[in-house]
Every structure is written in structure tokens, then in C-alpha cells.
Design a protein that fits this description.
single chain; 38 residues; mainly alpha; 2 helices; 0% strand
Length: 38
């Protein structure tokens, strides 16, 4: 189970990095989307 947990953590880190990259690309859209949500 420990091995699976490590793999999951690594996967989370990879997905987080991709999300951060996408956020940087769509920083403008996120700003206007945030105001719409708030």
C-alpha cells in the first residue's frame, strides 16, 4: 500500500504542475472568471 500511496502522491504533484501551467496560461481568463463567480 505504501508504494501505491507514493505513486498517487507523485501523480498529484504532476497534475498540480500541469494545473499551475494552465493557470499561468489562462491568468486573464481566471481573473474575469473569478469576478463572475464572486
Amino acid at each position: 500500500m505504501k508504494t501505491i500511496q507514493i505513486t498517487l502522491q507523485e501523480r498529484w504533484a504532476a497534475s498540480r504542475a500541469t494545473i499551475f501551467k494552465n493557470k499561468k496560461k489562462y491568468s486573464r481568463k481566471t481573473k474575469y472568471k473569478k469576478s463572475h463567480l464572486a
